[in-house]
TrEMBL record:
InterPro entries: Formate_THF_ligase (IPR000559), Formate_THF_ligase_CS (IPR020628), P-loop_NTPase (IPR027417). GO terms for molecular function: ATP binding; formate-tetrahydrofolate ligase activity. It comes from Linum tenue. This is formate--tetrahydrofolate ligase. It is an enzyme of class 6 (ligase). Pfam families: FTHFS. The keyword ATP-binding applies. The keyword Glycoprotein does not apply.
Amino acid sequence: MDEFNLHMTGDIHAITAANNLLAAAIDTRIFHESSQYIDPESITWRRVMDVNDRFLRKISIGEGPDEKGMVRETGFDISVASEIMAVLALTTSLSDMRERLGKMVVGNSRAGEPVTADDLGVGGALTVLMKDAINPTLMQTLEGTPVLVHAGPFANIAHGNSSVVADKIALKLVGPGGFVVTEAGFGADIGTEKFMNIKCRYSGLTPQCAIIVATIRALKMHGGGPDVVAGKPLDRAYTTENVALVEAGCINLARHVANTKAYGVNVVVAVNMFSTDTEAELNAVRDAALAAGAFDAVVCTHHAHGGKGAVDLGLAVQRACENVNQPLKFLYPLDIGIKDKIEAIAKSYGASGVEYSELAEKQIEMYTKQGFSGLPICMAKTQYSFSHNAASKGAPSGFMLPIRDVRASIGAGFIYPLVGTMSTMPGLPTRPCFYEIDLDTATGKVIGLS
């Protein structure tokens, strides 16, 4: 567990080094130019680190006495929010990765033209830093099932899916009659939507079934249950029977099912059972899922019983995969405008419209002028609600979705609007996990990562 959660094969370290090499190349180019080619005000590339540090969200650089007074404001993102992580997850080969890394846009020239990593002469060096990271890591479950672990694009900011390379290797290994389960990160609003409209477009792969995971406790929260705060004991409402609260929360599940079915795949709902869940509550979720159009809904106990607790789920997924009779449907075509795509996605959230800030309007106009309007959209949004407001539970509708900024990951291949107050650098809570982590110096084992 310590290897899995800490350094693994060093993929995130490679991404951090490559990202920050590109940042250094940008500032070096500006520093050494007699007449500046890059417009410093247009630079969108930020440095990254793999630590939640809110105080690096906005910084100034070039403050040293030898930097010729070339001070500018910038900031840090979390490493998994780097475009290079998204490139790693969407690439199909070393040559494709080299091309994508070179195409990454870091800002504009003073003439308004996009400046890429290859324009700065650094695309090859980035590929060298990333050459080993393209290889997935083979691990196994506690019961010996092979697992390919690869890539971790920030699901709020990037597309949040495991890598195309890992999926293709897995499909090759299982053969025509085998099954590959791949993660789509968060719910139907930002997990499934990005999986279908971005990953499936670039990989050419089509899923036969989508599994939506639900719990009684989460549905109670969406039904109007008390606030859940990390580190604090759960309210009794979540550990005692309340069928009405569960039924009220199933409106959230129903929208996830409907949104996912719209892509033409069968939906199986996996209800992860807790020891405090009652039969009446579980039946309420199953009934609601089937009424919403799910192919099946199965109660699972694999957390308690391992693989045997998910046998029924596996059989349901097998049946769902064997009963697909329609092609994959995308939410929007690529040949419409950036705003039209954003609004199609917003409508699937339940929004009645979209509000664009002055900055967002300016960015959309610029990216359209530069020829990037044909890219898919990757919404940067909270995972806690269909809306931009994390506190808005259930299935909100009729709200205006605010877009405060629009950025581009041209190498990865998408435009990403920032919805509401979504941050690209998380902060630590009052009591961070590091309080619990230590090293047993006698055995060399890490403790506190449970």
